[in-house]
């Protein structure tokens, strides 16, 4: 009986192991697939934008920026597809091992069951059972023998059910293995096509870059002029922050002009915001960062340095800006050259959502995480829908990529 119980325990633990690992693998697959769909949609959107800009004869710089972003997204898609294929390979190997273990377990169960059937057949007559009971030395022994016969019959039934469950599990794993191999083959085919598209885009990029190199001085001047416009927008936002701090402190009776005077509730909110560093949701439902925080070489004309006080995120046309954390709308202002800006205060932390065509909130409104704040404007010049997202602590600018999850 000890050997048989051990076998049943092994089977039970194996089933638990299968369920646990299957659940984790399923979560990983779903997350990768979601990201893959987002990347494919992003590549499609950029491609449509590129074609549109070519027809409208937009700036070569704009075309190269679009192409660079498409190449980057395509490279990300290839990496992610490889991740998916590798995950499937691991799952296939794991399932192959599980199938081997289950087959051994099933063979052992069937062997034990066959021995039991043979023993049962040898003593199957009703007379033998009665004689087995009547031959008892006393009533207690007869009672124990009767209980043993009942347990034996029940155990035989249980073992038959275990064989059935084991067989069904084995069949399910085999079917899953077939599906996984088909999925992996599809990913390999898709990756082959994606790589071909990537090479085509890189050739187009080289042709456009040759044009830019011939007129690099002219393009450098255009970039610096654009940077001057960005600097002016950033200065306007910093003025808005300073004025908002001063206004808030004046209302609370404080003379401080550089930092917020915090109530106990505001301190708790700021602490909660800080505790979520690196875990905040994106300020758009889906999008891609096209300009990072801080000083950096221009993505096309690398000899020119540009600066950004926040991040720029391209999203789909009609995309909505969303609050990254609960807070209070402290300002809604028009910003020259950048449509409208919404400023949300989280204690002494501030998030700013700039370049909104339409605003859904007003000063004083309490907002919650992922609440829509407004519709992002689409540029008539470039055709891009870009959110300018900034994050401050009082008047100190911070890199949003340190705060937003996987930015």
TrEMBL record:
UniProt superkingdom: Bacteria
InterPro entries per record: Cell_wall_metabolism_enzyme, Dup_hybrid_motif, M23ase_b-sheet_dom
Pfam family, one: Peptidase_M23
Keyword hit for Repeat: no
CDD domains: M23_peptidase (cd12797)
Any coiled-coil regions, as ranges: 22-119, 156-243
Alphabetical list of PANTHER family matching this protein: L-ALA--D-GLU ENDOPEPTIDASE, PEPTIDASE-RELATED
This protein's name: Peptidoglycan DD-metalloendopeptidase family protein
């Amino acid at each position: 009986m000890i050997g048989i119980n051990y076998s049943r325990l092994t089977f039970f633990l194996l089933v638990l192991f299968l369920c646990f690992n299957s659940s984790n693998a399923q979560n990983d697959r779903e997350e990768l697939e979601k990201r893959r769909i987002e990347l494919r949609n992003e590549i499609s959107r950029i491609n449509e934008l590129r074609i549109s800009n070519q027809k409208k004869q937009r700036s070569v710089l704009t075309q190269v920026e679009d192409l660079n972003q498409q190449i980057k997204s395509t490279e990300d898609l290839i990496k992610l597809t490889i991740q998916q294929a590798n995950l499937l390979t691991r799952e296939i190997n794991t399932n192959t091992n599980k199938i081997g273990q289950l087959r051994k377990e099933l063979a052992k169960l069937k062997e034990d069951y066959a021995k039991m059937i043979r023993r049962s057949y040898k003593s199957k007559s009703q007379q033998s059972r009665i004689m087995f009971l009547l031959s008892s030395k006393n009533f207690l022994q007869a009672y124990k023998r009767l209980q043993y016969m009942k347990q034996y019959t029940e155990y035989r039934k249980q073992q038959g059910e275990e064989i059935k469950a084991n067989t069904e599990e084995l069949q399910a794993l085999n079917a899953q293995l077939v599906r996984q191999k088909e999925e992996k083959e599809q990913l390999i085919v898709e990756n082959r096509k994606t790589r071909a598209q990537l090479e085509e885009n890189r050739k187009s990029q080289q042709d456009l870059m040759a044009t830019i190199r011939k007129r690099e001085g002219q393009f450098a001047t255009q970039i610096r002029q654009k940077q001057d416009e960005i600097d002016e927008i950033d200065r306007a936002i910093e003025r808005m922050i300073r004025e908002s701090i001063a206004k808030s402190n004046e209302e609370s009776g404080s003379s401080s002009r550089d930092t917020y005077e915090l109530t106990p509730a505001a301190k708790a909110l700021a602490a909660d915001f800080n505790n979520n560093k690196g875990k905040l949701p994106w300020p758009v439902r889906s999008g891609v960062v096209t300009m990072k925080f801080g000083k950096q070489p221009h993505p096309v004309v690398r000899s020119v340095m540009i600066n950004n006080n926040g991040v720029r995120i391209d999203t789909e046309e009609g995309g909505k800006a969303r609050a990254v954390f609960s807070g209070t709308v402290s300002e809604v202002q028009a910003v020259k050259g950048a449509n409208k800006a919404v400023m949300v205060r989280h204690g002494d932390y501030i998030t700013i959502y700039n370049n909104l065509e339409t605003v859904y909130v007003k000063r004083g409104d309490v907002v919650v995480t992922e609440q829509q704040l407004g519709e992002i404007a689409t540029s008539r010049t470039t055709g891009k829908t870009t959110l300018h997202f900034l994050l401050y602590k009082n008047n100190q600018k911070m890199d949003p990529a340190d705060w937003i999850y996987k930015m």
